[in-house]
Amino acid sequence: YIWPSPQLDALEAARFDQQGFNANFLAGFIQPCDTFQFGSDTGRANAADWIRTVGFYLAFPHWADLFTEAYHDMATHNSTDGTGGLDASIRFAEEQARVENAGDGFDNTMTLIFLLAIVNRYISISDNIALAALIAIENCGGPEIAFRGGRVDAAVPNAPGVPEPQQDLASHIASFARQGFTQTEMIGLVACGHTFGGVQHDFFPDIVNVLNDTSDTEDVAHFDTTFVTFDNNVALEYISGTTQNPLVVGFNDTTNSDKRIFWQRRERHYAIVRLLIRGANTLSMPCRFANSLDVYASTCANLFVRMLDTVPSNVTLTDVITPLPVKPSNVELILDGNTLQLWGQVRLWNMTEDPTRTVSMLWDNHIGGTGNATLGFAGLSSSTGGKYSAVWYGFNATSPLSFLSLDAIAGVTSLSFVVDNELDDQDGLGFALQDGFMFSQTSCLFGDPVVGKFDVAVRNGVNPTRVYLEQSITDSVQRVSVSEIDIVPPSEPIAANAAYSLWSINITEATTSYGIGAEIDGVKYSTTDTHVMVLFPPCPAEK
Ligand code: HEM
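# protoporphyrin IX containing FE complex -> structure
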């Protein structure tokens, strides 16, 4: 995609900036894989719950929780009428209270997402559930998962429909068909999901007994011996007859759902067949999975993408988000007298630190001129379980988190970057900047009770149809939207300098963050920076 695109820029960052500089907190939380937020030696793993949520279940995050969350949220999908799917309806107490969502993983995971994830106008709660599952898989040894954004959060709970272990095979086949998966895909999805975690005694006393194991204080009977790692051991141990999977060899055969799902007549011959045609397609799914980690990983990657992208039929997802090779980030313009403060960093994807590298930024202005500055190393980040790294440079060479001063009259129209003599200007388009309106440092406080004068600097000649403050609103079911507070155009121009005039609005909510929006030639633009009144200085007359 072409930068800037506010939604794709935000989704790309949430998906790829996972550890280190400018990283999102979600991924930082779930490493290493055997970490469980509520203590060690519990036998639980964050990843499993996150995956199960996407698939079916949500708990306070162990890795397993992050994954199950996604499954349980998705499993309400009805492929015939297009309702349900991955829409964060699992956050509703009514869904969590259902027997089909037994366990504490869902509540735990939602708590984590609300605490740590970025939920905003561009990234929904359900996008975060998908991201949590994806991060869990990728960081615990799993394959890379293609990510699309744009999920829409449900306003009310979905109809029930998460499969339960005591149901018979026919019910499970019908349930997965409703969710949009064939029988073969069902076998795959269960064998892929049950690579993490296990069944906990507290919530499933009819499946798992008290274990009296000091290294497994929560009495979790695991699906395989490597329950914090994505691997094919769940299939391998099943095929080799050593499995301890509580849904295969549980003492209560009624709840041995994995056994019914994995079992196929062909497998009776697995020992001979496996020797003769290893990994061949004629083998059953668990058999092929057991034979080849590659087959397992690639099949699971495809099924997980299908699972994460199962959304209500009125939702349109973005294209798969791939990382921009060169990406400006946190770009802000602020007017300070005759100076434009240009804040920001640039991320160079798939590169590591190299003290000999030179990175510079070029910019075009309104008067046909150009400028350039050398950028300074700001930090490193990594992604996808450490598979990719990125290096960041700040627009201000000596203070990477500070700004570069530009001439306000000349302004700035677009950026480009030169990395070791190689130009990146988005194939000639440049990285467009909007300097038609921005926050002005003349904003200040006056009066008693105190009022904030919020000044927006509007570039002369730009003639916006509207200029407004933007305020994020969270509704009663935690969905974020933006409300617009129009600024009345000044009756007489108030000059900020030779190029900018001020539009002002008085605000009284001291700690509310406001962004700025403007409609210019029928297109709406927003600033990425927000401002709070408590940080304004007193107005000159008040000093
Ligand atoms: C017929 C279908 C399925 C049934 C009956 C089933 C049943 C169960 C049960 C009873 C548990 C134990 C939960 C607990 O102790 O809190 C569990 C855990 C889990 N399930 Fe499934 N499951 C099914 C399909 C799936 C699918 C499709 C996925 C994901 C793709 C998945 C992912 C997980 C994960 C990751 C856990 C571990 C949770 C943890 O350790 O916290 N399951 N499943």
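# post-check
The radius of gyration is 27 Å.
Residues 293-308 form the longest helix (16 residues).
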